[in-house]
Amino acid sequence: MVKIYDEDEFEVFNDVPVIAIGTKDNGDEHVVAIGKNAILHAGYNTKIYKPFSNFRILIDDYEVAAKIIRYAIEQGLNRKLFFSPRMIVQITRTFQNDITPVEYKVLEEVMLNARAREVIIKS
Question: Which of 72, 74, 75, 67 is nearest to 89 (CA)?
C-alpha cells in the first residue's frame, strides 16, 4: 500500500501501488488509471504494472514507480503542490536479502523524481 500523511499524521491517501497503461492505435502509451481503479481497466490495449511487487528487489520499474508516487502525492495533497513535500519513507515489506545501498538510492531518486524536496528512508 502507498500511504500519504500530512504533518499532523492525518491519512490523506491510501491506495494500492498499481498502474494501468494503455496503448493507443498509433502505439503511444498513456496512463489509464492508478490505484484500485487500475485493476478494473485490465484488457486488450491496457497492461497492469505493479512496480513494487517483486519479492527480491524494492522497485522493478523506475518510471512506473515514479508515476504512482507522483499521483499519490497529488491526490493526497489535493493537487496543491505549491511546495515540494518532505518525504519520509517507511519500508514495511520484508525481503529475501537486506535492502542494498543501490536500492536505497533508487528509492530516493524515485521520490525526488516525484517532486519530493527531501527524502528520509527508514527500514
Answer: 72
Structural domains in the chain plus CATH codes: 2-122 (3.30.420.40)
Amino acid present at 62: Y
Q: Which helix (H) or strand (E) holds 62?
A: helix 62-76
User: pLDDT tens digit string along 67-116?
Assistant: 888 888 777 766 555 667 788 888 877 776 778 888 889 989 988 988 88
The answer for residues whose C-beta is within 8 angstroms of residue 119's C-beta and 6 or more apart is 86, 87, 89, 107, 108, 111, 112
3-state secondary structure of 9: coil
